Amino acid sequence: MCRNIKPLFNFDPPATDEEIHDAAVQFVRKLSGTTKPSKRNQAAFEQAVISIAACARKLLVTLETSHPPRNREEEASKARTRMAARFA
Hints:
- The structure is a single chain.
- By secondary structure, the protein is mainly alpha-helical.
- Helix content is 60%, strand content 5%.
- The chain has a two-stranded parallel ribbon.
- The longest helix is centred in the middle third of the chain and has 21 residues, at 42-62.
- The mean pLDDT is 91.
């Protein structure tokens, strides 16, 4: 799995549309092997991002869990601590 893709499920506050869109862009970039499509492929790239974002949004809304929502600040702090230890 790509290290840059972050979990979006079970957070308080929930994932925003921008976060879901950004994850969809990362996914399409990974699949296509390009960060910026050619003009010829721009429409297909954008349509894929829109479709994947819609599917991701639907998935996040329908998933269920018995665990309490995670706090974004706490998770970000843990990630910074892990990164500091990894690159120290």
